[in-house]
Amino acid sequence: MTMTTKVEWDGDVRFKATTGTGFSITVDGDQKAGPRPMELLLAGLGGCTSYDVVNILKKSRQDVESCIAEISAERSDAVPAVFTDIHVKFVITGRNLKEKVVERAVKLSAEEYCSASIMLEKGGVNIAHSYEIVNID
Predict the structure, then answer these.
(1) Residues 10 and 66 in one domain
(2) What CATH number should be reported for the domain holding residue 85?
(3) How large is the greatest C-alpha to C-alpha distance in the chain, in angstroms?
(4) Helix, strand, coil fractions of the chain, as percent rounded to 5
(5) CA 10, CA 107: separation in Å to the nearest integer?
(6) What's phi and psi for 131, nearest 5 deg?
(7) In terms of residue numbers, what domain contains 110?
(8) Cα–Cα distance measured from residue 20 to residue 40, given in angstroms and rounded to the nearest whole number
(9) Are residues 50 and 70 in the same domain?
């Protein structure tokens, strides 16, 4: 499967990225008009793994109300300032959520399904995952 994106310089350190599906976002090295490129990588990772976790939980008949991926990352001091460590913490809220099912969903995403996570790990990034379950009545 081929994916495409066009990135066009928009002056200073701003760029307009347009995806093959027609969505646009401003990328800005100064963070005055949009996120930095490395922030977008973290957002992509978060979206990829969150999609997997929610999908697995729904298929496992878990009553999920909310799934938030809180992501923190460390970068190398040397140039290029690549990510060295990333921590993804899921805060999953719902009714009667089963811990074993949540744990399994996070593990499956990390090890089998999330292309972004697996690609970054193969590139030498240490990625840790954790979760917090918030059961509501």
Answers:
(1) no
(2) 3.30.300.20
(3) 51
(4) 35, 40, 30
(5) 40
(6) -150, 155
(7) 37-135
(8) 17
(9) yes
User: Which token pair is 17?
Assistant: 């990225």
CA distance 134 to 126: 27
What domain count does the chain have?
2
51 and 94 inside one domain: yes
Q: Indicate whether 54 and 103 sit together in one domain.
A: yes
The number of angstroms, rounded, from the C-alpha of 47 to the middle of its chain's C-alpha atoms is 4
The two three-digit tokens of residue 75, written as one number: 């970068």
Beta strands in the chain, from DSSP E residues, in sequence order: 5-9, 14-19, 24-28, 63-75, 83-95, 126-135
The tens-digit pLDDT sequence of the chain (137 residues) is: 999 999 999 999 999 999 999 999 999 999 899 999 999 999 999 999 999 999 999 999 999 999 999 999 999 999 999 999 999 999 999 999 999 999 999 999 999 999 999 999 999 999 999 999 999 97
> Do both 95 and 82 map to the same domain?
yes
Whether a cis peptide bond, with omega within 30° of 0, leads into 35 is: no
